[in-house]
Amino acid sequence: MRTARATIAFAAFLIALGACFSPAPAQTYVSLGYGGLTCADWSSRKVIEGKSYEAWMLGYISSYNAYVFRGPNVVEGSDIDELRNWVDAYCKGHTQENFDTVVRLLIDEHAKKNTN
User: How far apart are CA 74 and CA 61, in angstroms?
Assistant: First the structure.
């Protein structure tokens, strides 16, 4: 009886430990267009191509404003240069991060700032 309890307790411990070290949940949607490119791609963009990246980013932010944010503009008070510079700075240290994730982080940072 004692051995069975010990075995069950040890199994429960292993399951709980495994849950602590399981990978983060995968992205549950498909990011179309430039979202799947990496920060390395962003950092090596050419002038014309860069405008497409920026248009994608602004579209993503606009969509967030329309469907998620409880206000008119999550990046209120920021212009395109500030947004571009934020992404530039972030991408310098995270070259393999995908562009979708970077824009979501940009939105998160501004959402925290603009809801306080």
Answer: 8
